[in-house]
Amino acid sequence: MAKRPREVRYGKHNMDYVLLTVVLFLVCFGLLMIYSTSTYIAGVDFDDPAYYLKRQAVSTVLGFVALFFVSRIPYRVWQRFDYLALIVSIILILLLLTPLGVTRNNATRWIDLKIGLTLQPAEVAKLGIIIYLASIIERLEEIGKNTLRTPKGLAIVFIPPTIVAGLIYMISDNLSSAIIVMGIAVAMLFVAVPDYKWFIIIGVVGIVLVVAVVLYASGADATSSFRLARVKAWLTPEAYSTDRAFQTLQALYAIGSGGIWGKGLGQSMQKLGFLPEAQNDMIFSIICEELGLFGAMAIILLFVVLIWSCMVIANKTTDRFGALLVVGVMAHYAIQVILNIAVVTNSIPNTGITLPFISYGGSAVLFLLSEIGIVLNVSKNCK
Known about the structure:
Structural class: mainly alpha
Number of strands: 3
Distance between the termini: 21 Å
Shape: globular
Oligomer: single chain
Radius of gyration: 21 Å
Helix content: 55-70%
Order of helices and strands: HHHEEEHHHHHHHHH
Strand order of the largest sheet: 1-2-3
Number of helices: 12
Largest sheet: 3 strands, antiparallel
């Protein structure tokens, strides 16, 4: 009897456990860092040092429940809800304009679910766009091999995520999530249409536009626009050390004081009221302060393994729709990790964006784990 090829996996226990193990470690480490980072401010504001930990733990448990069920649902089922996913995403974003919208820090980005929980529509939209684009790209490819390269095909692919990204930016003033949505769309189209010269041209044009904006902002009045003020604060943070660049400078102080090995877990000074929102967007700086360069590189390495695992699954899956789903999830994680670390290290202007699985945020961890559930289900159908 001929032996089965070793590179082909069979049976019901062929889930990608490397990916699952990395995610479990990141989530547990995230809970540990949230507790370490937020104990002081939670004790001051809520008289409960574990306030943020408890809330994040509830969302994490819900996220793993979602991961468990989603990983057992055949991923092909999601193709039936492609248009519904897009419509629900848009409706939820529009609900921010109703009395259900919750405003925090001068930004309306959450919906009050009236059960003691809030939901961030931008997180739903990221998953909704992944499902919609994976389905619509496959359908267009079935019509004809070159359909995606036609103006009509490109419009069908790009107009919906552009609308969603525009609504996220205009209604919730969430530029980072809008960028992620468009980044997911570009990454999925890049994989579907390997016509690299056009993407190189688009990239060059994008870089030129960014440079032009930076040059314009450097000479503009800082009070003329909120976004321009952030760019000026990025270029000369010391000149805005008391307002626009205060958070960035405190994060850089935390990174610098950590050195190679760090001060030790729980020994951060910046989290003691100096660094605003330390448990959210800037948690990576506290990781650097407490665990040093060594700890920061270890976390970055884990994210590299996570993204690499997704890429391997996308390459080995036997189905186009499944491969595109995984590419969308991989792009989501990669873009968000890169943007968060770039913001914390002042490599790009400050924009609110969380570090996946580690930063505080209930909606984020719930949908990030749901996406992992989809990827794990796709991994069962790999060669």
